Known about the structure:
The chain has helices at about 10-65, 115-135, 150-160, 165-195, 200-230, 235-240, 260-280, 285-310, 315-335, and strands at about 360-365, 370-375. The protein is mostly helical.
Amino acid sequence: MSSSKPSSKPSHAPRDEPSANEADRRFLTNRHRERRLRGGGQRKADAQAAWLWLVAGGLLMTGLALGPPRAFASGWPGAAPTPPASGGTHAAEPPTASPQPTPPPLRWDERWPRVRAWEYLATATSGALLAYVQFGTYRSRRPRWRGGVLFDDAVQDVLRLRSRPARERADRASDLFWGLTHLVPAVDAVVVALAVRRNLDVAWQLVALDAEALTLMAFASRAMHKTARRARPAYERCLEDRGYDRTCGASSAVAGFWSGHFAMTGAAAGLTCAHHAQLPLYGGGWADRLACAATISTATVTGLLRVMADRHYLSDSLIGGALGFLVGWGIPTWLHYRWKGSPGGGRGRERGPASRPRLIPVAERDGAGLALVGVF
């Protein structure tokens, strides 16, 4: 009788382990699907940004074809002093409070060349190349370059946040500072120059220069990510723990060099410093210097947060921030502002319309011809 009872319990025990493995595989599959969805959202955001710059370049070229606008008003509204009335005798008036000092007028110096046709074309080209590099090239997940250099590993061990929630908070904070830094040039052009100071000419030039520098830096950063394919610091830890970071297994895990966040915020800070050094957007003096210092500070915080979030090595941040600031400061300064010093001052090289080489017709007794005149 006892032999007729089937012993089914031992047969269930071997199936417990495969079921656990199957649950683990399903969990990892769901995590991978979640990462793919997040990566898709990031690609969508990149697409929106790329097409935004492409449309901006097209609008600038369209405006060039229609004719760049000149200033329809300069200076603060009502800033021009009222001339005293002449003639007639009037009774003595009681003393009044001294008038408030008015800020210097905001105008584009005629000795500064305005944005040229080839610059509009360069902006549109940078936007188109950015879109192509982002969507038309292969996104590899294999790094060409792994590990830190020089002081990278030592600094990373000190600054890297240990828990994943803390690193994700630092990542989100870097996005916030990225947006705040880019907000300053936009406010300077649209709100300050156009809405408050009522100078369409200056606002137009600021927008064109900002678009030129930022699209160039965005294209260069994305192209470097695709070609260098340096592994982020988190890549090494993802090999041991697939749940260490949301970039584990994604193509963005090999976009470490250089720091795109710090490069773009550095470019925005460079633009702000260049504009405020030459144009009294905030009235001149300490207010304009403070705008430059503030954007440099927010850009630096952005680069530091990227290291703390384990997104970049310190060398990635330093190189990206330095190149970004150089592009943001250099494009308006070397292509436009360097032909004259700051308004009211005499710094730098001056080159006005009369000093530009030009051909003029010359008539003499023996005949006529052309002469090249100018200051060389």
